[in-house]
Amino acid sequence: xxxxxxxxxxxxxxxxxxxxxxxxxxxxxxxxxxxxxxxxxxxxxxxxxxxxxxxxxxxxxxxxxxxxxxxxxxxxxxxxxxxxxxxxxxxxxxxxxxxxxxxxxxxxxxxxxxxxxxxxxxxxxxxxxxxxxxxxxxxxxxxxxxxxxxxxxxxxxxxxxxxxxxxxxxxxxxxxxxxxxxxxxxxxxxxxxxxxxxxxxxxxxxxxxxxxxxxxxxxx
Length: 220
Fold this sequence. Notes:
alpha/beta, seven-stranded parallel β-sheet, TIM Barrel, 16% strand, two-stranded antiparallel ribbon
């Protein structure tokens, strides 16, 4: 699993990332784009200083224009960021393709939903696609997208939309069905005040346990 660190001050971001690493997460995704680019660069620099070995990712949620995104990816390369998720608005397929000249990967989330995997591949617009079963129409359709992406040489990660236990379990099954998958964004159950079920696909030491037996989740 990857841990997700929300927008926060420089020390808050670094502390949250360090806590995730201590909890066993091999990758940390930091939300960016809500602050100035210089502030986000300082935040990522602080994370890298505290967590020198973690795989570092960023998620801009389409916050930047092309010039800012290009500057961001150039600066993020200095902190060994693996990829930036949705640096531009979802409509910007050509813009995302141009950003791939940087030394930081480009991942599409909302852009994948808007345009579809074939258009993303044809436009050469991404290094990684973010596959959310509840957004793409279910586990089977999300798996088709992930397989198509990997056949085309793109990476694929599976994440949730902060789903309840049953949908999270389905996403975990999906991730487990794809060999050699990078760390996925499925450790979101703690963000819910209440849930439909407890102890379904529990996360410990940065990994999720895949539900066993018949059906999506174990019986009560």
